[in-house]
Write a structure and sequence with these properties.
Rossmann fold; 8 helices; alpha/beta; 39% helix; 6-stranded parallel sheet
Length: 201
Amino acid sequence: MLTRAQLLGPLAEHRTNEVVVTTMSVTRPWGRVSDHDLDFASADSAMGHAADLALGVALARPDRQVICLNGDGSMLMTLGTLATAVGAQATNFVLVVVDNGTYEITGNQPVAASAIIDHAAMARASGWTNVHTFVDAREYAVQIPAILAAAGPTFIHALVAPGTEGPISRSSAEEARYLKVSLADWCRVMKASLMRTGPAA
């Protein structure tokens, strides 16, 4: 099982100008390893829709890779996204299910059947062909550069130890820059960055 740092560190190291959409228990930890205008925290409401939002960005900007760091509980709320991504042929979409078995930021309540559900199997059954499962940090760190370079849609099921992240706010008390301002203000930051940088290199 990976720690949060073992999951996010290699991703941040190999990230260039991809859009990264985070939600729930990875929102703060990602903000500790990345401070980029193309980071987007989808943690305000509508739990379960971070993957939908990220897929929408990927379809709107097919020139740019979009990575979604989704929760296991969140994924279960919108399983239709798995079929939509395949049907849309979103080759620039990477969906990472960060499986810690709990709804961490609301008190670590257990996700129903978390020890039984195989997220990677559900992705394959939905038509995803580029599917990976990681429980070993070393294997993940070795493989992540090639995974990010491959055409998608790409699905990563990462088994991660639960943590102690609490409820997320948007205020100056938060460490991450993308949580220090309102959602509307950060949308303008990301939009300006996408317009400024144009197509990905």
